[in-house]
Amino acid sequence: MMIKKIGLLFSLSGTISIVGEGQLQAALLAIQENNQNSSIQFQPIIRDDRSDPKTAAKEAYSLFRQENIDALIGCYMSSVRNAVISVLNETHGLLLYPTVYEGGQVHPSVFYLGAIPNQQVEPLLCWTFHHISSNFILVGSDYIYPRSTNKQVRHWIENAGGKVLSESYFPLGCINFDKFFIDLKRFIKTNRSIVIFSTLVGDSVHSFYNQHYRHRLPFTIVSPITSEREISKMDKAAAYGHICASPYFRSINSENNQRFVQTFEQKFGCTGSA
Q1: Which residues pair with 125 in a beta bridge?
Q2: What's the CA dihedral at 154, 160, 162, 165 to 10 degrees?
Q3: Does the pTM exceed 0.85?
Q4: Packed helices 255-268 and 17-37: angle between N→C axes, nearest 10 degrees
Q5: Nearest residue to 232 (alpha-carbon basis) of 179, 192, 183, 274
Q6: d(CA 270, CA 142)
Q7: What is the pLDDT of residues 188-228, one digit of tens each?
């Protein structure tokens, strides 16, 4: 029997922990299933990057140099991924990056496993443009993925004949959006249909949706990154009527997915989606 050490580096505390916990659980389930059916056994070693790029780089270095892992899985935010790349360069380590990202980056030590904007964001924009509105308000968390993705979003919208009415970014972990929503009320007077395109992440997400609901704004929120775990933290009324796109939803009606969800819930309980 061959044993391979796998580092699992996720945000288990801090503003991104709501997503990081689910990603860790999914990785642990995959390792469990591999170990039941393979002569190559994976030994997981778990670390918390605390939703912080510097901490992520430190933990990744420790995993490769002290724990002698064979590969690393994790790093949800692009800023975290980029911080770890310097460690990969020094250690010649391998990172499996398991989430959506903004594209535009290729590194010989990284397997990018998630969707990029032309696979996920562009189809969502096209559907929104033709079914809801061609007028967009862009809002995101202030790090690499939202800013880079929104450059592509703006380009697509304007080429399609739509308009970006405003673009705003908030610090990671921001939970107070009252001023933002008060400022948006000026657009109600224009009598135009408007979409709020959100690339907020973590703790900001449920706060944003809940406050949007309290302000009674008539604008649909559309997001390519709001996860089912983040939705589960919102008031149900605040989530109603909004749109999100994802490479995976736990509600997919297929035999394979139903089997996966059942196995996941048996191991971790009904904690939302991976």
Answers
A1: none
A2: 10
A3: yes
A4: 110
A5: 274
A6: 31
A7: 887 679 999 999 999 999 999 999 999 999 999 999 999 99
